[in-house]
Amino acid sequence: MKIIALTGYKPLEMNIFKPKDHKIDIIKEAIKKKLISLIDEGLEWVLMSGQMGVEQWTSQVIIELKDQYEINFAIIPPFENQQARWPEHYQSDYEEIIMEADFFQTLYKSEYKGPYQFKARDKWLIDKSEACLILMDEEFPGSTSFFLEEAKKAGEREFYPILTITPFDLEEIVQEIEINNTDYWNND
What residue ranges carry the coiled-coil annotation (predicted)? Predict the structure, then answer.
């Protein structure tokens, strides 16, 4: 597969309240590990809406990976100024990410009008990709549940793999970090 859609939790859904939380490093490492595996299998593009949390962290990981790998990412927000109500540091990160994106275009050329814009975003991302990658726990899908439902519908119509990064994958990263850097948790 050459093109995937990617999404996952927002920071608050993972109890992340600070921009320097150690959990972000773990999440980014899990994303990096999964993306490198997919790149090695032919992945060329990652499509996202750029929402705060997993999508922004993935964008940052891809920007770092570009030094070593041929990988592109597109940011397709559902509407203009989606970041207007976000905390300032996420707004700043978003502005940096859209400057680095290989492609950027809003789906609707207007501000927020209603939840239908999010549904249209999910459908568009799925229609334009060959598979999706979601960071989530299926027992507690949170905001990813809407995307997951749309991806499952796509899978009923045609072959559309739903790949995941799960809490188990994150725990593996924690164990790797602890083995390789015993002082990691003391480096605040």
Answer: none
